[in-house]
Hints:
Two copies of one chain form a homodimer.
Chain A: H1 3-30, H2 37-55, H3 60-69, H4 75-92, H5 96-119, H6 122-147, H7 151-159, H8 165-189, H9 203-217, E1 224-228, E2 234-237, E3 240-245, H10 252-270, H11 287-302, H12 305-318, H13 328-335, H14 352-368, H15 376-388, H16 414-433, H17 437-442, H18 447-456, H19 466-474, H20 481-492
Parallel strand pairs in A: 1-3
Antiparallel strand pairs in A: 2-3
Helix pairs in contact in A: 1-2, 1-3, 2-5, 3-4, 5-6, 6-7, 8-20, 9-10, 10-11, 11-16, 12-13, 14-15, 16-20
Amino acid sequence: xKAYPQLEARFKRLTVLGDVDSMLHWDMSAMMPLGxxxxxxxxxxxxxxxCHQLLTAPEIPDLIxxxxxxxxxxxxQSANLxxxxxxxxxxxxxxxxxxxxxxxxxxxxxxxxxxxxxxxxFEFVRPGLQSVLDLTRQEAQAIAEALDTSPYDALIxxxxxxxxxxxxxxxxxxxxxxxPKLLGRILERQKSAPLPLDGPFPVAAQREIGLKLxxxxxxxxxxxxxxxxxxxxTGGAFGDVRLTTRYDEGNFAKSLMxxxxxxxxxxxxxxxxxxxxxxxxxxxxxxxxxxxQSLLIEMQACRSKEFLTFAAPMIAQSFGRSGAAWSPDNLxxxxxxxxxxxxxxxxxxxxxxxxxxxxxxxxxxxxxGDLPLRDLPHAWNRGMxxxxxxxxxxxxxxxxxxxxxFDGAWGxxxxxxxxxxxxxxxxxxxxxxxxxxxxxxxxxxxGPLVAWLRRHVHGQGSRxxxxxxxxxxxxxxxxxxxxxxxxxxxxxx
Amino acid sequence: xKAYPQLEARFKRLTVLGDVDSMLHWDMSAMMPLGxxxxxxxxxxxxxxxCHQLLTAPEIPDLIxxxxxxxxxxxxQSANLxxxxxxxxxxxxxxxxxxxxxxxxxxxxxxxxxxxxxxxxFEFVRPGLQSVLDLTRQEAQAIAEALDTSPYDALIxxxxxxxxxxxxxxxxxxxxxxxPKLLGRILERQKSAPLPLDGPFPVAAQREIGLKLxxxxxxxxxxxxxxxxxxxxTGGAFGDVRLTTRYDEGNFAKSLMxxxxxxxxxxxxxxxxxxxxxxxxxxxxxxxxxxxQSLLIEMQACRSKEFLTFAAPMIAQSFGRSGAAWSPDNLxxxxxxxxxxxxxxxxxxxxxxxxxxxxxxxxxxxxxGDLPLRDLPHAWNRGMxxxxxxxxxxxxxxxxxxxxxFDGAWGxxxxxxxxxxxxxxxxxxxxxxxxxxxxxxxxxxxGPLVAWLRRHVHGQGSRxxxxxxxxxxxxxxxxxxxxxxxxxxxxxx
Lengths: 493, 493
């Protein structure tokens, strides 16, 4: 048997086990009783160690070298092989002991975080987070040596292949420069508040309108489901996309837009190239691209006045409401309201980058060892004051608000804002090449938009690097200009 | 490092992966969207193959032999080692290819069965079931050669270590002889029907009273949960017990007793010896004992007039009902109503053994190759007519009703009736040694009963063979006498 098909067989098993890990993680977040945390940590560690063993099997480098010398590989197969090489190089840098220790530390820390966040008690989770951070720094160091990068770059590379801190700084610079002024002008304009949307909004009704809009967007319920979790996310497996939201009976607007956001992620997963579903090249390997898809659906499409004008009567009806507060105009004002706040996931698209910037700066300092964990709450609060002029009243609305560091995702935050920039760029390119997209959205028809995304983004899997894909789909490299122009147009036109 | 601790480390990983498989199975039954079946089959096959690889690693037999020669093992460790030897001998008999093929066939067949049952269409699932049967026969043959038993005995042994067909025949003989006469006398006595309990009973209310009674029984919700599935079962992982039920808005009684039945299984799982949770000896390896625990809770404890007298007002209140139909006496008449019917899981304890006998006879013939699968529906219907005088109107209420053959459980059915016999014997022994048990149940206090079970059954794990455990806990070997006496007393006294 040739080397390439042998690798495909091995990586299929690996990809399937990755799905198993992901299902266990979904269950942990959406279903698992609290007392089962220790057992789940064992299960996830066992699966991760087996994945690591498969990926670092001593034959793999020779097989990859042999496959690279084989004739007749198509472009997908070559890209698949390149992705195999990348994954195996990263994995070989980290030994099994560290893999297992990190898996356990993350599972335990994530479960403690739930309680710490509920009780606004950073100290309760600090030792757990310290373990995760220490082990992550070890991992980053080991991968950095193998890839010849800095430790922080090694972490970023795990979420967005090839991306580096210097490139992020370059891409963020126009935001750092322009957003504060833009924010000032927008706040000046939005002095009067929209009419309030008074609750309560029963969870069942919120869930129902969420499901209705998911269907409208083209979510395939035969291959996925919607549930609840403390921190909304999209996970699951190939052909089985699990998204979650959380409900607040006093405010339907957040949860509903959260569902649409996650549906953007889910459409990406459901649109990956079917023939390559069990190979590395068939998966979505870039978090920046993933976030671009959720933000494209949420921010570009669903917060547009075209869509909200269409959706307002459906939403009003689902809660049995009517009147001026439920008019499209007032709903649009709610969904484009800009207000510096404490919580990233509730932030509008104008202030969101400041939340990311704070986390980007802090995680770099934590990974570099320049910021002791005990000083994190204070540093967080000072950063919020400096960047947005607001100060958390406790750590639940401060450094405990996000799951990411606690579940081991370091170097991930920048992809939120890079994703927002990419979303704007994709949406503009899509609208220019398919003039039917925006009129479609105005009628609740997402077909033309999703078709464009399927062709240019989802269906590409990991065949290209994120920057290659953006360039190919939009005709230019990623930058902040389209995003800033979008903000100007939406909030100041 | 000595051999025994090396084995413990290997079997811990194996046990944890078994939990992963079990979680995937729970999800498949209770949560997974239908279109995800193919992917789930891949996942479960991958995990099963890895388990098989771990269990058949070439070093294992030598490690076991070395550990058996090591000094200073305690009785739990020795029992653990014996169980390791048993599991590894069974696994080594079956090659990896067959393990994987069977895992895939079972996952696919189980998902097709859901649709076949819904549509009462045996032909839709027949090819899938044929694959499962063919592969199971191969597996049985391979294990039979290793254990020097018949193929059917090899299958039984997988559910109840050491149990053989000849022993089952001997234990079933008094039932075959006495139950038909007993049934005739009971039906004579129960000529008048109880007052009807009129629905509808909303699912939410049914769920709530189910949860309330689970709590009363001592189910630990920090380590488990209750959901819905087409076929009720108890699964999950160590420290994370997932039970399921199904609801019928026209009839709360079945679902509620179903929840109590599964809670019996769940209490067993939650009472396993904590220190041995990740070793073979710490798990419940006998299906007969497992069923004895569910039937002890359901049939012996919760259908007793003592418990139903206590529970009737709670149940009536939870549905907002009152009046003669909701009196304890009428509820007792419902819950001790004997009526030959088509559906095993709805059967009373007098006619239940006939359902098991039918399946026992049919699966022996199918495994022996004496009954072609296409003749199964006919053979089933003739058997029902002969044993219980009723004939299914379609295969959904005939040979499609149970999940077991479709999900690969062959040689499992006898344990239901052996479990019923063991339940009666345990309950009698418990009541004799702890006189507080029945008065406790009459006040809704299951503490004394569960404490006895923890000590004599749950906490024993797999330290003893099922027959040793029954003998030790009840002072005599398993037989049908106590069970028959229980039926006489409850239905004819």
